[in-house]
Amino acid sequence: MSISELNKPNYVDCEHIIEGGCNIYEQRPPTCAGWRCAWLRGDFEDMHKPNRVGVVLDSSYKADIFPGGHAYVAREAFPGGFDTASGFLRALARMRVIVIMHQDGRRFVLGPGDLPRKLTFVEYKRAYRRLPLV
Question: How many domains, in total, are found in the chain?
């Protein structure tokens, strides 16, 4: 998410992220205070809390993330979180498109088995190129 109060663009990690949270949490801007991850919004059960599964998921309906529909955007909740979450993400990808956003800029799209038929190769490459660097 973009945070205008911090001049932070969309899909870029915040400079205030530290292991275990936010180093300005008590003074965080209203944009941050109002944000809710997919788990907090009730999309997942208690057992899928980010600190347990290893990833924080946010929903995106924006074409710059994935054209033509809803996608979850996944970021590590802690170092090694993607390794911890691999089974959870594979299971979720059977039903939904997931864009894995690594801190070093690598991005991967996971999705249902029929994903290639839903999106042409050219559309996929165009969407992938539009994903901003992290």
Answer: 2
